[in-house]
Amino acid sequence: MEIPPSFKKLAATRGTGAAGAVPANTVIMFAIGGYTYSIKPNPWHWLTSKEAAEEMAVKVAKWPQEYGCDGIDLDLEEGAGSNKIAGPNMVHFIRKLKQLSPNMIISQPTYGWPQVQAEIDVINASWDSNGKSQNLADSIGLMVYQGTQSLNYVKNFDSSKRWQGHPISASTPNNAILLGAKGVTSSSAITQLAQASVRDNLLGIMVWYASVDNGFQYKQAEQWDASINDDSIKGYKAAMQILKQGMNAVPRIYY
Fold first, then answer.
1. Cα(124)–Cα(142) distance, rounded to whole angstroms?
2. Which DSSP letter does residue 129 get?
3. Phi, psi at residue 102, to the nearest 5°?
4. Whole-angstrom Cα distance, residue 197 to residue 199?
5. How is residue 109 annotated by DSSP?
6. Statement: residue 254 has pLDDT above 50
7. CA separation for the pair 23, 42 (Å, rounded)
8. What is the pLDDT of residue 212?
9. Are the C-beta atoms of 37 and 47 separated by less than 8 Å?
């Protein structure tokens, strides 16, 4: 697993004040996987055994020093994520990584309805039924991107009472749950998500996606990039102020 040169180059701009640089207070997360990479290869070679997972953890533990990131986003989706060996070995990977680099932030994305076994395994291993952290994942991000619909899925992961046999046994604390939002979400919906985050003590908003100027464009039937939509840009700027004022601290901003 190699880091693209562009990741290191962008991370190195943090706090420099140069045009297009990452702001000084921004948390930089490197995403591992994604939809396409979860389909092929399957399985991920470093999730085929505990030994392979721990060996990869040794490598990833060096990333903050080598590449300037603060953590990783484990985007293991359908395909490789449904392989029965993936979840247990991902837990081995995270546990070893936390031993080696305890300050690294680890975020686990999940569909609104939990359906990828590896994601479920990581979430259930990360908190107990009372919401006590097991020192594995630090947060989850709801991959629900239409309007304010992610709010409807918090109950699948928080302390809400769920029916017997529900795939999620953990109670993820509200302050470890990120709401999903499409990059081109309307400013009014973005405001509602920010206000709900403050009201319900949620971690904030996970945006998919906002590219740098003239940067990568994710191929969708419709354009998702926040950087091309003035109303969305206005909404995210306003949301940041709501989050800062409501949480009395600088919230995490995920790149």
1. 15
2. T
3. -65, -20
4. 6
5. E
6. no
7. 36
8. 76
9. no
- The one-letter code for the residue type at 16 is T
How many beta carbons lie within 10 A of that of residue 70, not counting itself? 19
Strand order in the sheet with 71-75: 29-33, 71-75, 105-110, 139-142, 177-182, 204-208
Bridge pairing between strands 71-75 and 29-33: parallel
Enumerate the H helices of 26-174 as residue ranges. 35-39, 50-60, 63-67, 86-100, 117-126
Backbone angles phi, psi at 206, to 5 degrees: -105, 115
Cβ atoms of residues 57 and 98 within 8 Å = no
Burial 3-25 (b: 16+ CB within 10 A, else e): eeeebeebbeebeeeeeeebeee
* pLDDT (average), residues 132-138: 97
| Angle (nearest 5°) at CA 151 between 148 and 157 | 150
In the numeric block, the tokens 């999903």 are attached to 180
